[in-house]
C-alpha cells in the first residue's frame, strides 16, 4: 500500500488534478456571493489555470534558477514566477468576467509562490551560493 501512495504522490497527473479541484473549488467559494453560474465559471477558469500552472511551474523554476548567480538565484526565480502567474491570473479572470478577481487569485497565487520558493531554494541550495 505505501508503494501505491508513493507513486500517487509523485504522479504529475495527480498534482494537476489536485490543483484543478482545490483551486477551482476555492474560486467557487470566493465568488459564492454572486449569482450562478458566475461562481462555477470562476471555478472552471481558476481550476484550468491552476492545472496548467502546475504543469509548467517546475520547468520555469528549473530554467530560471540556471540564469541567476549568487544570492539572486534564491529570490529572483520565485519572484519572476509569482509576477508571471499573477499577470496570467488577472488577465484571464478579467477576460472571462470573474466578479471577485482578487479574492479568487489570492490563495492560488500564495500557494504557487510558496511552492516556487521552496522548490527553487531546494535546487539552488544544492548548487551553492556562488556557482
From TrEMBL:
Residue intervals passing through the bilayer: 40-61, 73-95, 101-121
Keywords: Membrane, Transmembrane, Transmembrane helix
Domain of life: Bacteria
Protein name, entry field: Transmembrane protein
Native organism: Rhizobium esperanzae
Lineage, opening ranks: Bacteria, Pseudomonadati, Pseudomonadota, Alphaproteobacteria, Hyphomicrobiales
